[in-house]
# Entry
Amino acid sequence: MVFVWAQVFPSLETLVATPDDHRVMDRAIARDRALAFAENRLGVSPADVAKVDLTHFSDSDAVGYFSKYKLKDEYDQSWDERFPTDVYRADIRLASGGWVQVSLQMETGKLVAWKRIGGAAAGASSNPERDAAGMLAQWGYDLADWEPVGTVATDRATVFQSRKAPIGEAKLQLLVKPGEELGYRIVLPASFLESIHAQERLATRLSMLGYIVPEIVLFVLAVVYAASYGSFTSFKRGRLLAALYFVLYVLFTLNMTAGLRSKSETGLPVSGQSVQSLIVVNAVILGATALLSYFAAVGGDGLWRSMGFSLWPRWREADYGRRVLRSVRQGYALAFIVLGAQSVILIALEKLLGSFTSSDASQSSYNLAYPWLMPLIAWCAGISEELLYRLFGIALFRRWLTGAARLLLRREPSRRTTAALTFAAMIPPSVIWAFGHVGYPIYPVYSRLIELTLLGLLFGWFMLRFGLMAAIFTHVTLDATLVGTQLLFDGLPYDWLSGLFSIAMPALAGGAIWLLHRSSRAAGGRHGSPDRLEPPPA
# Structure
């Protein structure tokens, strides 16, 4: 109920209040409209178009500023129609040389900015300010609303500043270069920009020290403990999950090539070779993560079984399919507990720490070639993170802590002590998991650390109480619901179908596994007696 009230209702109200002609255009329509503008307004011949890259770009600093100071409604009413923070930008490569960039308002499809790059440049003007003012008038701007600043932008464009009242301390400027450029920028207070950039630098350091270095250490430990405790389990454990993680994440990466282009901060078109290089680098990293997930699966299962607990049933067990269905039911219930808890935490962080969010176009559904494939990311996160941070991470620290207690006490620790140590064992992997998410555009960055450490403890308890499969389905259902909610309300045509599919996807997958296991049993598959599912005291 808290989740629906805090996160669903506001988006639903916005969607209902939005006219149909102000819904976000899909990529195909935006591409066609950009080409039409290039031909009709900029004189680009269709025969001269060699390539078109369409990308959703977002001014994340401006989005963060309006979010932090609760100015979004004022911005939407005053500036968004003609000077949006988010645009579709078409980079049109010309066979005759150079590029033409066309930026569109994502809902109305209006042309809001354009620029020529390379090719034949316009000749130098004897009076740039006068010529720029003439160009503004030609494009329908009221010169009474704009004042020449008297400075020139880095690309020699003349700058005009709006005479209308700023929003907060944000000012609006036009960049004009006759025959070559007509754009705009939102000028934010220097103090805000410095604070954001300081937060970004802090996030980079925290990710390196709190996530990347521990990940390397966990990789080594996972290999060591998989080899040491492999006799308690099987080296077949986790192979299918690790392979599934790798394949799904590679598909997701290929689907977000436009998102990779949106990371460019130069304003210049990104070459296809650069995007391909990023995809290759990501594939290598994903391959290493898949290996880590595999060794974590073997090492984690071996550690728990060596301690006398079976948290992960095996396919050959007669009731495996029934356990999967039970885990699906538990996953949905527990996922909505997490969604409610997350909503409460986010509200508390906003009230206590003044936390706010910005935007990240690289993760945008508008930058996906096929938005309906976006739910794949839910399985990638649910599989790898639960295997590493919950199954292996908690087992590792529990083994260390109970072993240390045994040495200090010179006897087996009591049940209460073991329970306390088990809880303590959940903290380090939860913190490492949280450090891996501080790069998201949520400020201050340590608010994300607090949020996910608390949620990590919940996930850890779920695994100890209900088993690994329930924890995986909880994680997948959580992410699938968040992705589905985003798709339901992103305003793209037919994405409501993708959103509903995303939310139903974990149940569909669980049902498919149950049917597959049932058919394999009917075909005479070999099954042993089920292990006893006994969680550790916690």
